[in-house]
Amino acid sequence: MAKGFVGLNCVSLANNIMEGQKAMKAIVRNIEEEFVVLSPEKQASVQVSDALLYQRLSKEYGNFSGHELIAAYEFEKDWNTWEMHPHGDEVVLLLSGCITLILKLPQGLESFTLNRSGSYLIVPKGVWHTAATNTKSKLLFITPGEGTENKSEPL
């Protein structure tokens, strides 16, 4: 047991950690159904993954300035758009399946295949990217959402 926490169970440990702090209720959630928004102060809030999600994010989080979205999506085919995040790097982590991320770098297009659960790629700030797959694949994204652009073809 960690030093300083002798005799505490999980519930009392959580109560001690949160005492005096404004904290979200600790419950188990599913990242495929509810996404996490991290504020600039790194406080987490939960948003239901539905058709109005991105409209809510823009409205409720000031155009998502300084915020990050932690989300999971499943894909069975190539993305039909390219995207770019001008305010930070994006982490793309493979949960299952196999997917190839294609980045438009200064030297040209470069492909990176994620084919083992837990493998990830950091997409640099300002780099256009898309994905190709023909296998059902689940990805976890940690995205600096402010100013994200989507296009059918990269510039």
Secondary structural class: mainly beta
Write down the oligomeric state.
single chain
The helix content is 10-25%
Distance between the termini: 54 Å
**H and E order:** HEEHEEEEEEEEE
Number of H/I helices? 2
According to DSSP, the number of beta strands is 11
The gross shape turns out to be globular
Main sheet, how many strands, which sense, barrel?
Answer: 6 strands, antiparallel
Report the C-alpha radius of gyration, rounded: 18 Å
Strand order of the largest sheet: 2-1-3-10-5-8
pLDDT averaged residue by residue: 87
Low-confidence stretches: 1-21
β-strand percent reads: 35-45%
Topology:
Layout: H1 10-18, E1 34-38, E2 44-48, H2 53-60, E3 68-75, E4 82-84, E5 90-96, E6 99-105, E7 108-114, E8 120-123, E9 128-132, E10 137-144, E11 149-151
Antiparallel strand pairs: 1-2, 1-3, 3-10, 4-11, 5-8, 5-10, 6-7, 6-9
